[in-house]
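Cross-posted from the bioinformatics board.
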Amino acid sequence: MNAQLDKTLDAVKCVGMESVVGASDLTFEHVLQARERIAPYVHNTPILTSSYLNDRIGAELFFKCENFQKAGAFKVRGACNAVFGLSDEDAKQGVATHSSGNHALSLSYAAGRRGIPCHVVMPRTAPQAKKDAVIGYGGLITECEPSTTSREAVFAEVQATTGAEFVHPYNDPRVIAGQATCSAEMLEAVDGLDSIVAPIGGGGMISGTCLTASNIAPNIEIFAAEPLQADDAARSFRSGHIIADDAPVTVADGLKVPLKENTWHFVSHFVADVMTASEDEIVEAMKLTWQRLKIVMEPSCAVPLAVILKNQDVFRGRRIGVIVTGGNVDLDRLPWMK
Amino acid sequence: MNAQLDKTLDAVKCVGMESVVGASDLTFEHVLQARERIAPYVHNTPILTSSYLNDRIGAELFFKCENFQKAGAFKVRGACNAVFGLSDEDAKQGVATHSSGNHALSLSYAAGRRGIPCHVVMPRTAPQAKKDAVIGYGGLITECEPSTTSREAVFAEVQATTGAEFVHPYNDPRVIAGQATCSAEMLEAVDGLDSIVAPIGGGGMISGTCLTASNIAPNIEIFAAEPLQADDAARSFRSGHIIADDAPVTVADGLKVPLKENTWHFVSHFVADVMTASEDEIVEAMKLTWQRLKIVMEPSCAVPLAVILKNQDVFRGRRIGVIVTGGNVDLDRLPWMK
């Protein structure tokens, strides 16, 4: 991300977030505001359990099913908070973003509900199902190469042309406050959680989870789950500074993007550990979830169960919230198909 | 089914069903008894909606998700009602059944919860995932050929050897009363339904649905949905008597079995229509459900949506309950895989 683009993260444009210029300014009050703001546009998603998985792991798992969320993923929470927080004046030129998929759907959905345009820069290699869905929600796609470098260059052009308000997929306090509503719902629905495990890509969901839990349930340990083949967050966590990889390759295609300063704030201050899983472990956990929970979810969502299965000594005996982040998968290209 | 086997449908062995010898003796009181009896062993499953599907069809669809049910299908309701309705004396020798899959899982689960043996005769061609699951629940499998004739012959042998109590997959008032608890839950959760659409194979779920609706919401029209390639129920409905096909071939493998007298009672008296869908229509509706509802369900469960999509003139403007009957599918053999 270049410095100019970062300046467009203009949090003061979100009504009720006038004093927020960075992640460290966020309070639980912002989460409550977000919850009220987005309530008409999102689901309070169900929480599923599996006695088979509980027995196998020796723990109690509560799966917060954001695959059932509007637009098929948790990202609609942050997108709606950003879009519906804009003043009428600021909303006029529409919104714009770059995304590996679900944020694009979500922002298109949110913009569509508000009746403003949404410009999306998307890797040409993104699953066709995701592109079709963006178009279905009225999003306007410009394609880029599947690398962070290309995406940012193409995006700068799109933004300069349209004058649209940039809503970053995760490095945006408005988005983080929106994602934080997910664990707020989970903590209301399930008592006595010991841990929450969520996937980590850019860190938006993990940051929102930290924002909520650190304020209202500070004893809960937050674990980030990451593909070993895109383990930049784990390496960042261990080294104490952001490490970014350009275009890593993993089946968990929602988790390829690097941390940024706003999400690094939460990862570095509030995360207990970043755990990794191999491609095979992710696919196995994905298939196991489909078989046992009977839900359609993305490979990215399987990384938490993969790390729990791999680190049973850490998780045994605990009550664990698991965030199933999205369900937008290409059914013709499931990772266990030959 | 030969006459001797039919005599083993000994409904008086189910406590509280002493006066029930056939389908026409069933009352809503039996449904309420079943509900109380099975409550500790089954889920009150969630109901999902899809604004995309509602918009596309011009109706309001409420999907009762029995794919999230214990043992992965609605059949656990009837199985538990039969197993937990047995006196201690009658339960001693265990239970036995023949099944194309889900009833086998369900009876194994129910018997396991009661701590009695469960003998299962299953076609050797049943999906391996279903066989594994039966074994996982402690069921004892004897294989037969994939035809009604072979299944009944092999079953007669097994029953003679073990002396186990026969619980037919559907032609049993105890089972029908158990299945009826599904629509009882749906009618509690959703007001003002105009129609309920459920798949029909042997007719257990449709019979239970008729039993509940005819007693507490008689204005609701019940539609049975059937594969065109196994349309014996549709032909029976039109001709006024049971027509049975031996070993029809359809992707909806839970719907191959014929009606029997107890289910024919409900189909002939209470069903508004039996509608059929082609194999392609079923697979398309299945994929659409996975994509839009983000749930894993069997091909059989897609037949209701397939007939709704095909008969939009009948269903437009209605509030429609759709019963998603089960989620036990072999993920390595999905019907849209090449």
